[in-house]
Amino acid sequence: MEDRKMYTGDWTCMECGASIDSLPFEPRDPSTLTCRDCHMKNKPTRNSDNVRRIYVGDWKCCECGTKIDELPFKPLDPDTVACRACHRK
Ligand SMILES: [Zn+2]
Ligand SMILES: [Zn+2]
User: Could you please report the per-residue DSSP string of 50-70?
Assistant: First the structure.
């Protein structure tokens, strides 16, 4: 069983210039690679940018009546909440 395939190459960290000779994935764009140290440093800020807020509640779709228990926004008027399928219509 081989669960960790490493790709080897000759890359450079775009942030600190350290050389990178192996990666757990094949880089699509080698010019944007960062070494493990820089990657770890950047992680918290990158993550906070990507965090999607989810509001949990107990709503019903105003069109089809489907139960909705989470939304990416806080509904101003719960009576007009539509499920994802109806929202797209
Ligand atoms: Zn680096
Ligand atoms: Zn619906």
Answer: HPPP-EEEEEE-TTT--EEEE
User: What residues make up the domain containing 26?
Assistant: 8-50
Total number of domains in the chain: 2
User: DSSP secondary structure string, 8-30?
Assistant: EEEEE-TTT--EEEEESS--S-G
Determine the distance separating the centroid of ligand 2 and the alpha carbon of 69, expressed in angstroms.
13
**pTM to 2 decimals?**
0.42
Each residue's pLDDT tens digit, 14-66: 999 999 999 888 899 999 999 989 888 876 655 555 667 889 999 999 999 99
Q: Are residues 43 and 68 in the same domain?
A: no
From the CA of 3, how far away is ligand 1's center (Å)? 25
